[in-house]
Amino acid sequence: QKEKPKYTIGFSQCMMSDNWRKDMYQGMKRELSFYPDMSMEMKVANGDSKKQNEQIQEFVTQKVDLLIVSPNEKDANTSSINQAYLSGIPVIILDRRISSTKYTAFVGAENYLVGQNAGIYANTLLKGHGTVLEISAAPNTSPSIDRHLGFVQALKKYPAITYSGIIWQNDQLDQTLPAYLKAHPQIELIYAHYDRLALIVSEICQSLGLRKKIKLIGVDGLAGKNEGLDLVKKGLIDATILYPAGGEEAIKNAVSILTKKPFKRENKLFTTVINPDNVGIMLAQYQKIREQQQSIERQTYKLLDLSRIYSSQKKAVGVLLAL
Ligand code: FRU
User: Fold this and answer.
1) How many angstroms is it from 194 CA to the middle of ligand 1?
2) Looking at ligand 1, which residue's alpha carbon is closest to its atom 7?
3) 143 CB within 6 A, ligand 1
4) What is the pLDDT of residues 270-316, one digit of tens each?
5) Is there an atom of ligand 1 within 6 Å of 58 CB?
6) pLDDT tens digits for range 25-62
7) In angstroms, rounded to a whole number, what is the distance separating the alpha carbons of residues 9 and 14?
8) Rounded to two decimals, what is the model's pTM?
9) Least C-beta-crowded within 10 Å: which of 5, 58, 220, 290?
10) In contact, 68 and 11? CB cutoff 8 Å
């Protein structure tokens, strides 16, 4: 007989449309599979902060035992999270930050460091001289804000690197970017705030015959076809800044909090520059992790099978003894 979960975790996810978020979710599910007394319910807000606030409120009403939130926007989602926390529910903030310190723990990489890494590596790629452009997506999210701040801060150290400005990704990027590059022919590097965006930029530069001239840096560094590592390996971008999704770590933290074990309040995940020199090592590591995960899954199924056989044999013995 299956044990009934003792704890319910509510997971408020700002969106789920890309592989980075899917990777986060897979990581959570994998880790959760080790804890049969924990169950998780996810609500996805599709990039709508108001909807996310309502979903957080629903979790509070449901009285979940712990709430994990990957908030859409920094300010817009702060008060609903505060309320959840003040109602006594432990809250883990995952990936994006809010503008308050009313949470139990944070799990994620520092986006300011991501931006700094991008700035330092931009200088390396340009050999200390050139003009750079930044492209971001959502002005009110903490990654967008901090990836920008870290980048411009790092560039201040390099007097011969000129910061041209920031443009915003939208459906018209295939028009706005060529127009910008035409008006600013001195651009020699573009820092795109995530790899999916960097791929679009790479294709636009390619179609303008500028890919050789313009270096490209993305962020995320996922494994998989057309994800960051693959793009670096194929030379479609020059580097990506690793930004781990942290699903496993969030669940590990949740388990410690719920079972009253010691836990860390700030869990800063590792970030680094991935370029053609180290992309092979990264890919090999991911491959190894994938193989280990598959073997864990196989063993888990085997254990489940064994326990099924055991319980049916126990029943059979019971029947025999009753005769
Ligand atoms: C995925 C994503 C990632 C990015 C993260 C920041 O939804 O856009 O590409 O690194 O969110 O929160």
Assistant:
1) 7
2) 21
3) yes
4) 999 999 999 999 999 999 988 888 888 888 888 888 888 888 888 88
5) no
6) 999 999 999 999 999 999 999 999 999 999 999 999 99
7) 16
8) 0.92
9) 290
10) yes
